[in-house]
């Protein structure tokens, strides 16, 4: 596919628009194993920037990185009943190694609570050993039947934090702290407004006491679970015998948490900000923040233009910068190419710009002429910074307004059913699983979360009419 191949309209076929854009922008490609993906350099650069934004936040809150094995003994997973029941349909199992049948099957990790719990039981002996605050960057395998690049693949890349604490309060504080870290990254770096909330019992992570989530609205109004943080209480500590001697010389089980965010965030960025021309990337995470396209017809013009381009390359060295000096394609082709790849800011420099001491500046977030202006070469670095800041904030505000415009508070169940065809519903809910199940059966929507910020007071459940003390979001989801 090339930049001249027109993408399907988002409005007409959002799913196909997404699939083609991921391929066309060279973010990822399909692997020979069904359900797996190859993340291409442009997509990996975007993921690396997400990693850096998160990793700096993790370390600022006292966490350190480590690595744990890909293979886990089957018996480990069976130690926590809810955990194995939740993951058993998705497991990849190794039964032969070195040409011989293994005495015990090995699981290709779907998540790492069990192997990390085993290691923590060896390392933690006293309250002085706590808290343990470890994060792992890696990949996991979950045998998904229906897959889509970045959003849901058989193998995916992520980080998973695993911590152990001396008290329940400390573990819960950690759970909510890391949820806040995810929200902060999503808002400030990805320009995605997210709702922080707690999952229903049905949507809770297998083996968790409580699961928390950041939920985002995509460009087709569907919800995406963009990151999760889980409070395990003492369940995994008891399963793996993570005990410590407390201040009173009494043996206690530790309190543990885990939290994870994956390459699904790449999909979230695509679906939140993209348009019919392609990607629209937030400057804080874009692989290239600025692209310079030199324009010339002959060798004399090339010499004069490139002299300015080389000078500006030095002046803009603080930014992730690309000089598109390809000679086999036209400037128009380059413009379309970089628009499709979502580069936030394009600078065009031709012979007339050299004479005038100016630069043509094109913002990706604004269409056509609305996003184009001519600015002096003098002081260009400051102009670039101000423009990138403006793009970053405008993307967030646009996404927030879209979510607000497509979130409704239906007054009865019939209206709820209508709303959930193409939007989010924010409603009073009694939290009974039968009401949750009825909504899913009638609308295919699920409870996304009970937001941490509540309006207060009480209302009537939109399904059964009984007293309700919380409001929750329901929506169709990826």
Summary keywords:
eleven-stranded mixed beta sheet, 3 domains, alpha+beta, Translation Initiation Factor IF3, BirA Bifunctional Protein, domain 2, about 475 residues, globular, Rossmann fold
What does this 3D model show about the protein?
With 478 residues, this protein is of the alpha+beta class. The protein has three domains: 14-273, 2-Layer Sandwich (BirA Bifunctional Protein, domain 2); 290-403, 3-Layer(aba) Sandwich (Rossmann fold), CATH 3.40.50.800; 409-475, Translation Initiation Factor IF3 (2-Layer Sandwich), CATH 3.30.110.30. Helix content is 35%, strand content 28%. The strands form six sheets. It has an eleven-stranded mixed sheet with strand order 3-7-8-14-11-10-9-22-25-21-20, with helices on both faces. β1 (28-30) and β2 form a beta hairpin. The chain starts with 13 loop residues before the first helix and ends with a strand. The mean pLDDT is 96.
Task: Bin the helical content.
Answer: 25-40%
CATH structural architecture of the largest domain: 2-Layer Sandwich
Number of helices: 14
CATH classification, class level of the largest domain: Alpha Beta
* CATH T-level fold name of the largest domain: BirA Bifunctional Protein, domain 2
Mean pLDDT across all residues, rounded? 96
What is the fold's blueprint, element by element?
Blueprint: H1 14-24, E1 28-30, E2 37-39, H2 41-60, E3 64-65, E4 71-73, H3 74-77, H4 81-87, E5 92-97, E6 100-108, H5 113-123, E7 132-141, E8 155-165, H6 168-188, E9 195-198, E10 210-217, E11 223-233, H7 235-240, E12 243-245, E13 251-253, E14 255-262, H8 264-273, E15 290-294, H9 299-315, E16 321-323, H10 331-340, E17 345-349, H11 351-356, E18 358-363, E19 372-376, H12 380-405, E20 407-408, H13 413-419, E21 424-429, H14 433-443, E22 446-451, E23 459-460, E24 467-468, E25 470-475
Parallel strand pairs: 3-7, 15-16, 15-17, 20-21
Antiparallel strand pairs: 1-2, 4-6, 5-6, 7-8, 8-14, 9-10, 9-22, 10-11, 11-14, 12-13, 17-18, 18-19, 21-25, 22-25, 23-24
Helix pairs in contact: 2-6
């Amino acid at each position: 596919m090339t930049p001249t191949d027109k993408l399907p309209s988002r409005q007409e076929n959002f799913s196909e628009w997404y699939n083609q854009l991921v391929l066309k922008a060279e973010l990822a490609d399909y692997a020979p194993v069904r359900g797996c993906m190859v993340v291409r350099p442009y997509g990996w650069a975007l993921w690396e920037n997400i990693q850096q934004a998160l990793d700096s936040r993790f370390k600022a809150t006292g966490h350190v990185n480590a690595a744990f094995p890909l293979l886990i003994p089957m018996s480990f997973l069976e130690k926590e009943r809810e955990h194995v029941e939740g993951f058993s349909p998705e497991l990849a199992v190794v039964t032969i190694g070195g040409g011989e049948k293994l005495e015990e099957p090995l699981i290709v990790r779907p998540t790492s609570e069990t192997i990390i719990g085993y290691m923590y039981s060896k390392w933690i002996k006293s309250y002085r050993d706590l808290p343990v605050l470890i994060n792992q960057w890696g990949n996991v395998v979950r045998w998904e039947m229906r897959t889509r690049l970045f959003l849901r693949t058989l193998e995916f890349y992520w980080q998973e934090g695993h911590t152990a604490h001396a008290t329940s309060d400390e573990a819960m504080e950690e759970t909510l702290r890391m949820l806040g870290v995810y929200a902060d990254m999503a808002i400030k770096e990805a320009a995605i407004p997210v709702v922080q909330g707690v999952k229903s019992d049905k949507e809770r992570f297998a083996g968790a006491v409580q699961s928390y989530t950041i939920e985002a609205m995509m460009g087709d109004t569907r919800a995406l679970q963009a990151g999760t943080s889980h409070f395990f209480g003492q369940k995994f500590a008891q399963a793996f015998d993570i005990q410590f001697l407390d201040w009173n010389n009494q043996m206690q089980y530790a309190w543990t948490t885990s939290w994870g965010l994956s390459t699904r965030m790449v999909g979230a960025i695509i679906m939140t900000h993209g348009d019919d021309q392609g990607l629209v990337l937030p400057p804080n995470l874009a692989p290239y923040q600025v692209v310079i396209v030199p324009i010339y017809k002959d060798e004399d013009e090339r010499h004069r233009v490139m002299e300015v381009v080389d000078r500006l390359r030095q002046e803009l060295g603080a930014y992730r910068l690309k000089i598109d000096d390809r000679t086999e394609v036209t400037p128009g082709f380059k413009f379309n190419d970089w628009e499709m790849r979502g580069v936030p800011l394009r600078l065009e420099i031709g012979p007339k710009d050299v004479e005038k001491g100016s630069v043509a500046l094109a913002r990706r977030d604004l269409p056509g002429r609305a996003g184009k202006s001519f600015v002096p070469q003098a002081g260009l670095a400051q102009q670039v910074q101000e423009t990138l800041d403006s793009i970053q904030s405008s993307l967030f505000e646009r996404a927030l307004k879209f979510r607000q415009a497509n979130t409704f508070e239906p007054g009865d169940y019939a209206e709820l059913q209508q709303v959930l065809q193409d939007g989010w519903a924010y409603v009073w809910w009694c939290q009974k699983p039968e009401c949750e199940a009825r909504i899913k059966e009638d609308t295919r929507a699920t409870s996304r979360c009970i937001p941490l910020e509540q309006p207060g007071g009480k209302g009537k459940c939109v399904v059964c009419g009984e007293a309700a003390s919380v409001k929750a979001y329901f929506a169709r989801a990826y």
